[in-house]
Amino acid sequence: MSDDSPLISARNLVKRYGDATAVAGVDLTVSRGEAFGFLGPNGAGKSTTMRMIGCVSEPTSGELKVLGMDTVTEGDRIRARLGVVPQEDTLDTELTVFENLVIYARYFGIKYGVARERARELLEFVRLSDRADKLVESLSGGMKRRLTIARALVNEPDVIMLDEPTTGLDPQARHLVWERLFQLKQRGITIILTTHYMDEAEQLCDRLVIMDGGRIASEGSPRQLIDRHVTREVVELRFNGSHTDELAEIAGKLDGIAGQLEPLPDRILLYADNAEVAVAEVHARGLTPSSVLERRATLEDVFLRLTGRTLIE
Q1: Cα 190 vs. chain centroid, distance in angstroms?
Q2: Where is the ABC transporter domain (predicted)?
Q3: Does residue 312 sit within a domain?
Q4: How many domains does the chain have?
């Protein structure tokens, strides 16, 4: 395939399980060297789409090509050129950190000496060299995640696919994983990831799709999606003791203050170009929120505007 042709191309991609449709007609392309993300809540169709791209689940209908090859007829050739970081770690806990990489490399027919050298390089890359001779079961969650990423790189893949790469990790571990992934991106490795963390998508993705109900709700860079669907700033208003019905009544009194207004079960969101001006108008109307938070708009706001619910529901 030529360097300027899409690395991944899907046309009207559908996946059904009996009467249930997990993916309902997805079109997308991913370019070489791009960091591309699938953003959305559980059940949106992200992981199912990833499984089809990774050639472990056949599409029900539609066309899907990876590295210029058909995923149905050339799945073995495609899988040999992919690195996969699954949602759950599948490391061999009875082996050492170093042995996990070497043995996995042998599955790809990599010679033993080469596998050992590559394992040493990868452990240094993910900052686990000092743990090489430790059993995997002794590692923290963040260390296991980094080892899984190292394992996915052992065959020097064209594409690395990560399904919810930092779920369950503490903030420090998450940022270390982000740092390693950013370095891979700088090396020109194509990254495909799913996440329901808005900050992760904004940090790592050049471009992404927001999925809901098996469909793509919108596509673009993080900045493009925010500019397209919401205002620059957001004001979060909370009112002590107020329930959904009371918040709806309060929201009616806020009409016209901002371009967009979203009453949620526990707060009201005002989407405004100038948060300070919007807050001043709230007080001018005689309303006294118990707390006021002014912040920049995020991808979670985009998702809320597109689907009517938050990413973590």
Answers
A1: 14
A2: 8-238
A3: no
A4: 2
